[in-house]
Write a structure and sequence with these properties.
This protein has 193 residues and is an all-alpha fold. The protein has helices spanning 2-21, 23-38, 45-52, 56-80, 84-92, 97-135, 140-149, 153-181, 183-192. The longest helix is centred in the middle third of the chain and has 39 residues, at 97-135.
Amino acid sequence: ILAGFFIAVALALPLGLLIGWFPLLERLTSTIIAFCRSVATLSLLPLALVWFGTGEAARIFLIGYGCFWVMLSNVIAAVKQVDPVLIRAARTMDIGPLEVFLRVVVPAALPRIFAGARIALGVGFMVIVGAEMIGTIIGLGALIMEARTFYRSDITMVGMFVLGALGFVITHGLERLETRLLPWQARAAGRAS
């Protein structure tokens, strides 16, 4: 899950920042992004099995695919929704376009980018369970599927608990990273509550 997730983030983050910042790029890519985002990730399972076999590479590909489109869409939206007042204020201080982008747009977009990362992570967990249920004989998804066959709800519950615990730990790690990278966001959230 982490391998596919981090590959997706590493690809989607720079692409999303560029597409969100340049309206022409967004117009050129919006149809492709809408199309690819609409393709159900698990529908690619037969292709992934043919291309990569039943090992880890197929699962990493599927998770990466599912997470990539979610992450890309969220990064684009985060950049586009940066308050224009912040950008205009930075430009009045004779800051160049690159500096405006790096010092104003990226920090202002980071909270929404982290929210997108958490959503993408959830997609990664759904994809791995579905892929393991359908395409492999190993993994938690396969274990849950086998338990269903033998009417072992106890094994199914354990599998679901392990997935939930893994998701909680990884999401908590993302939240801690967000707090460390965006201390102003944590202070603002503390004042609001």
